[in-house]
Design goal:
Helix content: 25-40%
Largest sheet: 8 strands, mixed
Radius of gyration: 24 Å
Length: about 600
């Protein structure tokens, strides 16, 4: 093992010890000697049996038959989740063949950040993760299940499913992906059209035509944003079957992997000989593996919050220092958009997860001795799935890249360090994604501040021609307690155009950017946020701001005495907290933790677990 990886792992284990021990004790005490449904009074069990059709009733009356709950994020408005509509029937038949029974335990909401990007609904996006976690708990709370299958892909859905599922960590669980759509037009061409529209060079119809060629069918969007970062993270955690993350939606192999996953979860319950509870799969070492995988591929910055919250749910405590130290020693092995020209299908064709994991194992950068849903040991994940007689089988994975512009090697990486830097200074702590920046000097920005209290203010300034200057755009009151921490991806087009005009541009915000954002150097997730007393609230137009990724600095260059005499900006957030149902989220919003603590309200009153 690489010395730093080992040191960070040991530090996390020590830091987490009291929380992790308490969590594991609670999971151990929650186990059952037989099927969980037999612990219910007869009348209660009868209510479960009343909904049975076919062989379900006889199966549930057999106290040797494991019952698997299905939690699904299906809706046919989100392209990544549309395929899940057909999954329950497929899963039920596969579980039955494996000697179990499956019931649909509940659905969870799944909103699309692509649909809500820059719209009022985006203000609810991050908070939806906590709602999904709680909805997962409600679905499993009937206590009639001996295992669970979690169906979810996109930005907040997969983390929410795990955060909720870990409350039942004594049960085995498996994540089943739906797969990406096939590639449409290139991301480069898509962004050219977007910039042309922002400049007024083309109209609405041409823009819509381009966008529908990019997002054209069921499946996950093909750029390497948060949704596909989630899939990589899930496989690095050992929660997917090997190599199943990026097999295209709607293919025979995709269906075969779904059937295999359903059969596998049936064999992992406490009624058999391969009992593998979720609490054993999500461990300190698997969390480290996920961090390394994200750093090696330039994964989404959103995972610096999601993985913190997932770990917390398992009694594991990680922070941004852990991400930073891992990033410093992890070579960048993958270049796909926004870090390169290819997409997730290009990554899959070049060798995919099997090749990436092989390189990371050989480089001593990830732990092999972890428990996964496929068994003990991570070497199994260097294998690649294939279709044989309509069934999924696994064979030795690729030994070298199929495209050296997409996947490199540990000995000859694209960069010697990973994709994320943590910046610190009097403005607080923030995240900068450096893997997507075109050249090293863009990681250093020193320029006057131009302050905005909403993304609409910045967009209006762009349209009025006011951004044509060297600047660090400060977009504040966008943090968790401010307005729910929406993504500010729409701003990137305006700032990119300003950069292309030859100006020095940076961005500092307590909000988020899409996992697909690149090109513009940014310090995001700035914490403490403006609304809770962060120094961002005192920044004024013209103040000099320094962003220096090489030295990990984020600094407001204003005399300390002057800052003490300044009062914070007072900004009325009511317009961002009402309308389109946003008002109903007030109880969640007021309890959201800071970005480095996972931006979650769930653990505010239950910090011991």
């Amino acid at each position: 093992m690489h010395r730093t990886v080992q040191q960070v792992t040991e530090r996390i284990i020590e830091r987490s010890k009291p929380h992790r021990q308490l969590y594991l004790q609670r999971m151990e005490s929650a186990k059952s000697n037989g099927v969980f449904r037999n612990n219910l009074p007869c009348s209660n069990l009868a209510h479960d049996l009343a909904g049975c059709v076919g062989t379900c009733r006889s199966a549930l009356l057999n106290d040797q038959t494991p019952n698997i709950g299905i939690i699904s994020a299906y809706n046919d408005m989100v392209s990544a989740h549309q395929p899940y509509g057909a999954y329950p029937a497929l899963i039920k038949a596969s579980v039955a063949r494996a000697g179990g029974n499956a019931q649909f335990a509940g659905g969870v909401p799944a909103m699309c950040d692509g649909v809500t990007q820059g719209e009022p609904g985006m203000d609810m996006s991050l908070m939806s993760r906590d709602v999904i976690a709680m909805s997962t708990v409600i679905g499993l709370s009937h206590n009639v299940f001996d295992g669970a299958i979690l169906l979810g892909v996109c930005d907040k859905i997969l983390p929410g499913l795990l955060m909720g599922g870990l409350q039942f960590g004594y049960l085995p669980m498996i994540l089943i992906p739906a797969g990406p759509m096939t590639s449409g037009i290139t991301n480069k061409d898509k962004n050219k059209v977007r910039e042309a529209f922002a400049k007024g060079e083309i109209g609405h119809d041409e823009l819509l035509s381009s966008e529908t060629k990019a997002y054209h069918s069921p499946g996950t969007c093909t750029f390497y944003g948060t949704a596909n970062s989630n899939q990589l993270m899930a496989e690095m955690l050992g929660m997917h079957l090997p190599g199943s993350s990026f097999v295209n939606a709607g293919t025979k192999l995709r269906d075969a992997l779904t059937r295999s996953a359903a059969e596998q979860i049936t064999s992992l319950t406490h009624l058999g000989t391969d009992y593998t509870p979720l609490s054993q799969v999500i461990s300190e070492k698997s969390i480290i593996n996920a961090i390394v995988g994200l750093m090696a591929t330039g994964g989404s910055t959103n995972e610096t919050m999601h993985l913190v919250a997932i770990a917390h749910a398992a009694g594991i405590r990680i922070d941004w220092n852990d991400f930073a130290e891992i990033s410093d020693i992890t070579p960048l092995l993958v270049r796909i958009y926004p870090n390169g020209s290819g997409d997730i299908n290009s990554f899959q064709q070049a060798g995919g997860m099997a090749l990436l994991i092989k390189e990371l194992l050989e480089g001593g950068l990830i732990h092999e001795d972890v428990q996964t849903v496929a068994g003990k040991g991570f070497a199994r994940y260097t294998e690649k799935p294939a279709l044989k007689d309509n069934k999924a089988t696994w064979k030795k994975g690729p030994q070298q890249t199929g495209d050296p512009t997409i996947i490199s090697t540990v000995t000859d990486p694209f960069e010697t360090m990973g994709g994320i830097k943590v910046l610190s200074g009097n403005l607080g702590r923030a995240i900068m994604k450096i893997s997507a920046l075109a050249n090293g000097e863009k990681t250093f920005v020193k320029a006057p501040a131009m302050v905005f209290n909403s993304q609409q203010e910045l967009e209006d300034a762009f349209k009025a021609g006011k951004l044509n200057r060297d600047m660090v755009a400060v977009v504040r009151f966008q943090g968790p307690r401010g307005n729910g921490m929406p993504e500010l991806h729409k701003l990137i087009t305006h700032l990119s155009i300003t950069m292309d005009r030859g100006y020095t541009v940076g961005l500092v915000t307590d909000g988020r950017l899409s996992g697909a954002s690149g090109k513009v150097p940014f310090a995001i997730h700035c914490t403490p946020e403006a609304v809770t007393g962060g120094l961002l609230a005192k920044v004024q137009d013209g103040d000099i701001i320094l962003m220096d990724a090489h030295n990990s600095i984020l600094e407001l260059k204003v005399d300390k005495l002057e800052l003490e005499q300044r009062g914070p900006c007072k900004y009325d957030l009511d317009t961002n907290r009402y309308g389109l149902g946003r008002q109903i989220f007030a109880p969640l919003r007021k309890d959201l933790s800071g970005a480095e603590e996972g931006a979650s309200s769930i653990f505010t009153y239950t910090d011991e677990n």
